[in-house]
Amino acid sequence: MLNDILSIKNLAREEIEKAESLKEIQDLKVKYLGKKGILTGKIKSLGSIPQEDRREYGRILNEAKIYIEDLLGKYEETFNTAELNKILQTQRIDVTVPGCYIPIGRLHPTTQVLDEIIKIFTSLGFNVEEGPEIELDFYNFEALNMPKNHPARDMQDTFYISDDVVLRTHTSSVQVRVMQNNVPPLRVIAPGKVYRCDADVTHIPMFHQLEGFMVDKNITMSDLKGVLEVFIHMVFGVDTKLRFRPSFFPFTEPSAEIDISCVICKGAGCNVCKNTGWLEILGAGMINPRVFEMAGYDPEEYTGFAFGMGIERVAMLKYGIDDIRLFYENDKRFLEQF
Ligand code: PHE
Q1: CATH second-level architecture of 109-335?
Q2: pLDDT beyond 70 at 155
Q3: Ligand 1: does its nearest atom lie under 6 Å from the Cβ of 207?
Q4: What is the DSSP letter of 198?
Q5: pLDDT, tens digit, 9 for 90 and up, residues 109-131
Q6: Cα separation values, 328 from 193, 231, 287, 297, 334, Å
Q7: 170 Cβ closer than 6 Å to some ligand 1 atom
Q8: Which atom of ligand 1 is nearest to the CA of 287?
Q9: Predicted confidence (pLDDT) per residue in 35-59, tens digit
Q10: pLDDT digits (tens, 9 = 90+) for 176-193
Q11: Spatial distance between the Cα atoms of 102 and 104, rounded to a whole number of angstroms
């Protein structure tokens, strides 16, 4: 029996020292000290030992048990530490590694310019209104003093959906819509998409316009000049000069085209302004009494001004872009510059 215990102890030691993993140590624990373990078996069999020897055997068995337990515990700890170190090594977080680049999108230059323009006019007390892009011939033409077969309709190459329905060719279509539903005083801007069957370096079939109009008693051309001057100075700088050139629109009388001093050469003459020193930027005028009649307003009581501009055109002048098609080609190299 004594030899038995000694050889169990030695065998256990040999096996524990040879173990190469935590798993092996855990298996050895079961093998020697588990419920059905070798040493446990010996302890259970103490009962069959004669009374006088039992005490001594018990002591030796207990010593062996403690010895194996300690040894197992020591190895267990070693393997645990090794395992932990391995995890710490392989899964180490290097806080000095540069972070991942998360690409951030940006607003389209058209949107940026439109937002800026809207901000300027709302700060002047204008309200934003919208109208439909698929529009009745009535609001796009008739109500703006362009009856069917009126030659001025040829100024705009219209996409017709049916005899009475068009893709709006300008945001002026919003004027009568708003007037019909509101009473003056009105200070309104109407931004949005417009459509014309036209395409070259300065024209595309879909582009953006912003309409502005003001209606009240005693509105005059000088109100128009004042508002436009503030607007132009805010977008292009206070040194920018304005020039009103007589023009014609069926829905305004008198009408004007407004030029600004060339943003590139400051008026000296360059290829952008074709050596004139001026750039055309918007159309405007005093609202034609015929339009007020169409809206149900008394033209004797009210006067007003209206203007309309192309947003891409403003963006092109602001940033010196020479081809309008760049706005809709979605070339990131172009878009990322704004
Ligand atoms: N609607 C005109 C155009 O598209 C611009 C304009 C608006 C002119 C308002 C005068 C008054 O060319």
Answers
A1: 2-Layer Sandwich (3.30)
A2: no
A3: no
A4: -
A5: 999 999 999 999 999 999 999 99
A6: 13, 26, 33, 40, 10
A7: yes
A8: 11
A9: 998 888 888 888 888 888 888 888 8
A10: 999 999 999 999 999 999
A11: 6
